């Protein structure tokens, strides 16, 4: 260690010993030495040949309310942003593109949105309800604009608090805004799954499942393309990773389930060119993965998935899928 590093460690330790009220904060140490000193003071000066007991000596350090840390990670979310003796947790989960100090402000604004939403149940007039809705929308738009200031939600999705914020915000967003966040998730799913060390991704599932429930058939196809394609991974590799992750598999199931609901409904699908071909190819690719790899237990297993596979696959393959999925 260098002399500077040794000096920093000593300073770090000494800061913890500073006290403006030692009897309150370190009573037993102070009282112990008070009694020893009182006893020794009673002895005659000439008889004090015994060596005084060792006593911890704290070098004088000017009392400081703040001190410059050695470690500082700009824009960290979900963890302590600086390393200090008072906050010695590991500084991880740093994302340079995100300003950490803005996240608490967004959470406070979201709390106000949720409180306003609860107040709607107590209003007695349409005019008052309209004012509350307008107030809610303004705050939601403000939060969304802050999240989308860089044109990308990924920095918030790789940290735990960012996931929680988006999960709570999604129900208040307009469909096109929520659809954009869904596509960010599916487009970056391998990255999100690999960096989800705290297994916080499932917090997004209920909100994203509701977003999926409002997709048109063409929107659904776009999301499935995002999920099964990657610049660095093949479709096979994307699906393999997805099927081995609780959140990934649950999201894939939700997309397929919604597709089956759309196909079974009487509402016109209004597909774009190539949508049905992409849908059919995806079904066969997913079926191949589900029948081959070891599956994790999903957050939710939709009841209409086997009905979907029965549209395209033979009975033997469907039976094998059923056995593997359950």
UniProtKB/TrEMBL annotation:
GO terms of biological process kind: deadenylation-dependent decapping of nuclear-transcribed mRNA; P-body assembly
Cellular component aspect of the GO annotation: P-body
InterPro entries xref list: Pat1-like (IPR039900)
Any one GO MF annotation of this record: RNA binding
Origin superkingdom: Eukaryota
UniProt cross-references to PANTHER family, sorted A to Z: PROTEIN PAT1 HOMOLOG 2, TOPOISOMERASE II-ASSOCIATED PROTEIN PAT1
UniProt protein name: PAT1 homolog 2
């Amino acid at each position: 260690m260098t002399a500077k590093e040794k000096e920093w460690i000593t300073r770090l330790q000494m800061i913890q010993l500073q006290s403006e009220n030692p009897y309150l904060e370190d009573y037993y140490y102070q009282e112990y030495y008070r009694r020893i000193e009182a006893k020794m003071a009673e002895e005659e000066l000439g008889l004090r040949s015994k060596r005084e007991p060792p006593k911890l000596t704290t070098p004088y350090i000017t009392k400081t309310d703040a001190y410059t840390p050695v470690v500082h990670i700009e824009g960290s979310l979900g963890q302590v942003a600086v390393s200090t003796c008072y906050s010695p947790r590991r500084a991880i989960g740093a994302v340079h593109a995100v300003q950490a100090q803005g996240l608490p402000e967004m959470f406070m604004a979201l709390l106000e949105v949720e409180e306003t939403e609860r107040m709607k149940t107590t209003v007695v007039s349409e005019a008052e309800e309209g004012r509350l809705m307008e107030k809610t929308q303004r705050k939601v738009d403000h939060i969304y604009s802050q999240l989308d200031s860089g044109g990308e939600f990924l920095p918030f999705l790789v940290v735990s608090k960012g996931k929680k914020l988006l999960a709570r915000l999604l129900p208040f967003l307009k469909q096109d805004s929520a659809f954009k966040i869904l596509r960010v998730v599916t487009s970056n799913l391998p990255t999100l799954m690999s960096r989800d060390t705290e297994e916080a991704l499932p917090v997004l599932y209920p909100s994203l499942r509701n977003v999926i429930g409002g997709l048109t058939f063409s929107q659904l196809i776009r999301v499935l393309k995002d999920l099964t394609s990657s610049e660095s991974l093949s479709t096979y590799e994307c699906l393999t990773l997805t099927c081995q992750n609780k959140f990934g598999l649950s999201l894939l199931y939700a997309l397929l389930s919604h597709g089956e609901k759309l196909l079974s409904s009487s509402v016109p699908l209004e597909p774009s060119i190539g949508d049905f071909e992409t849908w059919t190819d995806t079904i066969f690719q997913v079926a191949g993965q589900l029948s081959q790899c070891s599956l994790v237990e999903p957050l939710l297993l939709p009841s209409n998935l086997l009905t979907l596979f029965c549209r395209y696959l033979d009975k033997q393959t469907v039976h094998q899928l059923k056995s593997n999925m359950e």
